[in-house]
Amino acid sequence: MKKVEVVAAIIYFENKILCVQRAKNKLPYISEKFEFPGGKIEKGETKKDALKRELLEELNVEANIKSLFLTVVHQYPDFELTMHSFICEVASKDITLHEHISQEWLSLTELRKLDWAAADIPIVDKLVMNG
Ligand SMILES: Nc1nc2c([nH]c(=O)n2[C@@H]2O[C@H](COP(=O)(O)OP(=O)(O)OP(=O)(O)O)[C@@H](O)[C@H]2O)c(=O)[nH]1
């Protein structure tokens, strides 16, 4: 089974978290799902380097990456995903979506209302539980 390793950012501004929606995709289980911005780690990059690069590419934002929050291993029908999520902060809500089709800034109590990619559910659950 194909293995994919990604980094993802839980970006806080004040008490809100940035949630972004993927575009339509041939894989129905990720198509138009909400996720945390990020992407694949390239050769020679550290996880934090990869996340900084992805956030610039996807959102045109410089984030302060604070700490590893949770690593999730999720088996999708077509690949096994390992996703490392990091707590990050930004100085303003001023972002530009280059790949995603919508954004929401939500408080912890609102996070569960979105249709998340399945691999993100353990991250959302831990965020909500930690309060
Ligand atoms: N960045 C990110 N990817 C996630 C999350 N949840 C989740 O299942 N994924 C999956 O992780 C995989 C890799 O993410 P990606 O953003 O690099 O995927 P991509 O296919 O657009 O990248 P590519 O164009 O380089 O192939 C995708 O299949 C994506 O659906 C998440 O919260 N953030």
Summarize the structure.
With about 130 residues, this protein is of the alpha+beta class. Helices cover about 20% and strands about 40% of the residues.
List the helices and strands and how they pair.
Layout: E1 2-13, E2 16-21, E3 34-35, E4 38-40, H1 47-59, E5 64-75, E6 79-89, E7 102-106, H2 121-130
Parallel strand pairs: 1-6
Antiparallel strand pairs: 1-2, 1-4, 2-3, 2-7, 5-6
The protein binds 8-OXO-guanosine-5'-triphosphate.
8-OXO-guanosine-5'-triphosphate is lined by residues 4, 6, 8, 30, 35-36, 38-40, 81, 83, 117, 119-120.
Tell me what the structure shows.
- This protein is an alpha+beta fold.
- The chain has one domain (2-130): Alpha-Beta Complex (Nucleoside Triphosphate Pyrophosphohydrolase), CATH 3.90.79.
- 18% of the residues lie in helices and 39% in strands.
- The protein has helices at residues 47-59, 121-130, and strands spanning 2-13, 16-21, 34-35, 38-40, 64-75, 79-89, 102-106.
- Strands 1, 2, 3, 4, 5, 6 and 7 form a 7-stranded mixed beta sheet that branches.
- Strand 5 (64-75) and strand 6 form a beta hairpin.
- The longest helix has 13 residues, at 47-59.
- It starts with a strand and ends with a helix.
- The model has no long low-confidence stretch (mean pLDDT 97).
- 8-OXO-guanosine-5'-triphosphate is lined by residues 4, 6, 8, 30, 35-36, 38-40, 81, 83, 117, 119-120.
- Residues 2-129 form the Nudix hydrolase domain.
- Its EC number is 3.6.1.55.
- Keywords: DNA damage, DNA repair, DNA replication, Hydrolase, Magnesium, Metal-binding, Mutator protein.
- It is an enzyme of class 3 (hydrolase).
